[in-house]
Design goal:
This is DUF6268 family outer membrane beta-barrel protein. Pfam families: DUF6268 (PF19783). It is a single chain. The chain is built from 3 helices and 15 strands. The protein is mainly beta and 323 residues long.
Length: 323
């Protein structure tokens, strides 16, 4: 566990901040940004074009360990929409965005863990304002519960994340942002700086990163099709009410593979990623195995009760719908 001590922490943050469905990264395409700027000179309105959306994805990991073969499945769905766009006295538009996210972890054929399905529900609210044509500021907060739901939910089953994001645009081809995130979860509480960037290298190549959680290098085959190479750090943690004591379960993985994106039209996108994991761990811990604030050294020293640590192939598929 020494090798992935710091990575493990980032994986835990990744459950809330993955590149496809992270609540902190409110990306505003060019057309949407122009709409917001125009809204500053219009009467108050409660909606905006294509600032809302639905994201659905699923991933499969076949695992072999402890003399057993079983399947890890993850499924997530998120729906978000702007709830208000207003006009500021300084003639700068801003908006609030709300979203609700479900994530599930399903274990098929695993005989030793008391529960075989886990669920989390997360509510997120964010505020974004356009300070200038090149600078955006976002403030966000989310809370949720993650458990196998075999017992009543208590305050210890809740997790929280708050943070801020400043996004800057150097030119039309390069954008970057800095996220400062505080999160409190089963494993401890942490304050994390997370940088991100989007670089259009030329008409064919682009490179994006939400570091260290995700990075993608993509090649545009046509206006609607892209092929790329993606590396992702992800993690999810849930309360485990198995009857063996107070425990939580954690799945974390580092994966890399080939990605394919198909933009059907201005609203629909499909994506597929297939590859191999560089690290794939499914582990259970006692609730007492919890680090203090920013205690990175204690994260890597936690003692697991049950552990699968096997690299496997994986396949992930999903779609996005914008409205």
């Amino acid at each position: 566990m020494k090798t992935y001590g710091l990575i493990s922490l980032m994986l835990l943050a990744g459950v809330k901040l993955s590149a496809q469905d992270r609540p902190t990264s409110i990306r505003i395409p060019e057309a949407q940004r122009d709409s917001l700027q125009q809204a500053a000179g219009r009467p108050l309105t409660s909606t905006a074009p294509r600032l809302g959306g639905i994201n659905v994805s699923g991933v499969l990991f076949p695992v072999s360990g402890n003399g057993k073969d079983f399947l890890i499945q993850q499924f997530s769905a998120e729906a978000g929409t702007p709830v208000r766009i207003l006009k500021l006295k300084s003639n700068r538009p801003y908006f609030f965005r709300a979203s609700l996210r479900y994530q599930g972890l399903y274990l098929s054929g695993e005989p030793f863990i008391g529960s075989n399905n886990f669920h989390s529900v997360t509510a997120n609210l964010s505020y974004t304002t356009i300070l200038s044509r090149s600078t955006h500021l976002s403030i966000f907060g989310l809370t949720g519960v993650a458990s196998d739901f075999r017992k009543s939910i208590t305050g210890s089953d809740l997790y929280y994340t708050v943070g801020a994001r400043i996004a800057l645009r150097q030119d039309k081809d390069f954008k970057y942002a800095i996220n400062l995130v505080y999160t409190d979860m089963y494993t401890g509480s942490f304050l994390l700086p997370i940088p991100e960037f989007a670089w259009t290298i030329n008409d064919k190549w682009s490179w994006t990163g939400f570091l260290p959680i995700r990075t993608s290098l993509k090649y545009k085959l046509s206006k609607q099709h892209q092929l790329g190479w993606t590396t992702t750090f992800q993690g999810a943690t849930y309360r485990l009410n198995s009857g063996a004591g107070d425990e939580y379960i954690q799945h974390q993985q580092v994966s890399t593979g080939i990605s394919y994106d198909w933009q059907l039209n201005h609203r629909w996108d499909l994506n597929i990623i297939g590859g191999y994991t560089l690290s794939n761990k499914l582990q259970t811990y006692s609730n007492s195995e919890k680090a203090g604030f920013n205690a990175f050294d204690k994260i890597q020293d936690r003692k697991w009760n049950l552990s699968y640590d096997r690299n496997t192939p994986f396949i992930q598929a999903g779609f996005n719908y914008k409205f």
